[in-house]
Amino acid sequence: MILTPSDTHRYCVIMCGGIGSRFWPYSRTDKPKQFLDFFGTGRSLLQMCYDRILPVVRPENILVVTNRRYVDMVREQLPEIAEERILLEPDRRNTAPCIAWAAYHIAALDPEASMIVTPSDHLITRDNVFEQCVRRGFDFVERHDALLTLGINPTRPETGYGYIQIGKEVEPGLMKVKTFTEKPDKELAQVFIDTGEFFWNAGIFLWSVKSIRQAIRRYAPDLASVFDAGIDDFGTPRERAFIDANFGGCPSISIDFAVMEKADNVYVECVNFGWSDLGTWGSLYENSRKDSNDNAYGHANVIAYNSTGNIFLAPEGKLVVVNGMHDCIVADAGDVLLICPKSDEQHIKVMLTDVQLRNEDRYL
Amino acid sequence: MILTPSDTHRYCVIMCGGIGSRFWPYSRTDKPKQFLDFFGTGRSLLQMCYDRILPVVRPENILVVTNRRYVDMVREQLPEIAEERILLEPDRRNTAPCIAWAAYHIAALDPEASMIVTPSDHLITRDNVFEQCVRRGFDFVERHDALLTLGINPTRPETGYGYIQIGKEVEPGLMKVKTFTEKPDKELAQVFIDTGEFFWNAGIFLWSVKSIRQAIRRYAPDLASVFDAGIDDFGTPRERAFIDANFGGCPSISIDFAVMEKADNVYVECVNFGWSDLGTWGSLYENSRKDSNDNAYGHANVIAYNSTGNIFLAPEGKLVVVNGMHDCIVADAGDVLLICPKSDEQHIKVMLTDVQLRNEDRYL
Lengths: 364, 364
Hints:
Largest sheet of chain A: 5 strands, mixed, barrel
Strand order of the largest sheet of chain A: 6-9-7-8-10
Radius of gyration of chain A: 21 Å
Helix content of chain A: 25-40%
Distance between the termini of chain A: 41 Å
Oligomer: homodimer
Largest interface: A-B, 32 and 31 residues
Order of helices and strands of chain A: EHEHEHEEHEEEHEHHHHEEHEEEEEH
Number of strands of chain A: 16
């Protein structure tokens, strides 16, 4: 990999604290989605995320923000990440506090830094295109006081994503953001697609630490006040105690809602690198290789008769034999077996509640 | 339990060498059906069979015939059975050689003996009625040179069973057998039921050792010649070596075909004690307790939504969550998961062949 001198100031923050409950029972509170090798490639989504960013950001500049309960899995899956580059949130507080902490932390290490923030549990199929896009994004936010988000060229009227309406093009492929719209209904999503003005919000952001701190102070002063109180502690041995004492006082709010939807220097880089947030079993199915009967197997050992359109997951070494199944999720997670029509996967929320009501939290 | 003096001559032979492949993947070549606790009662079918016969036959007069590979399971499940009461078949040779050996063995111990022969993998729900029927059967075969089979009052035109046509009643509930018919088609089975003259062949037999030896010598001379060659070895330390050397030379044939269908002293005791051979998943389903949605759970921990008519089996501690499943077998056997419509269970034979073709015998 060829890194330019400016790369020393480029950082990456991998957000790795999610619980991924929509992929239950494969994703569990003690091993969420980002730690799973969904596709049987030998690398988890988190590891794939790390691999993807390596050509652009020096390994010592890659940080992981996660929850205390997941730290052992992060260490195990990413032994390359030094201990001091793992930021441990004492509480779950959505993305804005997570990003704010990372920004203050990096600013203390390098006031000239720029950073990319990325979820750890998404899928990107075209790593090369991703790399080019991220380089262009860094170049842009290093030259402008800009908050940049990556917008994905939409391929279907998906109702589970947020949409970004683009405005004026300021550089090739880089536009001013006009509006954000969270999860439209099907009709509106179709209108969005038809206009050609809307892109999916991938939740991947780039900015300089200067720009994001300034924006947080302006648009989320309650959040900024928490971190400004410890401004001298970041990058010192006192940082951890400060975070443990104060992070819980942060409002639980997304960076989109806290900053992006309010700021006037928000830009979108329109990209097309084969992205899915893998937010649903359906999206996992769409992104999986399928056989001639449209069954997706992951690495499950399956014999399927008269069965079409299913997605199978099973522990290694397990044989799954099915007959007459259509368009179902069959997810065997060892101690839990889920069988559910793909079209009914929103029902998983109800299932989780029912499992809790039965006092069987060990299955969650 | 009250045993009469004549009980000292009463023996029971439990046939326990079957492989039960129709219940795959729950039943496996290394742990067939008879060793499984299908109903979650804490007792396997074999143990239930033993419990059922105890009020009628002294424990020291109960023998188990099984295959060498299952001897450890027999010892574990029936520690009450003395080592010398477990007859180990060196080869699988259907029921006639098994029964012939047991008859020669018992005759050497007690020439005045009578015996009941029973499969170990059937279900009988009314133990008390069974007990009375067996007593009456013993009384009958001790007074007559008779080969007695138990005939079950049929409740549906089952095509998977053999049927016995009854002739003249010789004592109350005891008839001469007119014909045997193996597995009729649906129409014929219905005709059988309508006439009232046909009973299901339960494969449970009673006779004196004198009568059965005589019948084997007359109707299955090739079989008799094998055992007569070792007549002085039975009941001695030489028996085992004799069997190991000669059992493989027996023809593989059922007792029905070898003797019962040929002999002229065959009688049937018509009984009604809630019997099933549990030969199919469907029959297990029929015999299982079901909830208001007609789902049968065994001891599986299941949460079912919008699901009816299913039968579930799963390892202890596993949670099964299903949505929108109807009339299916869901059998999780740990390393194999089978999902199959109940109406399609004959397809399991094809599955077993396919698993073999994949060289995955460990799943059989």
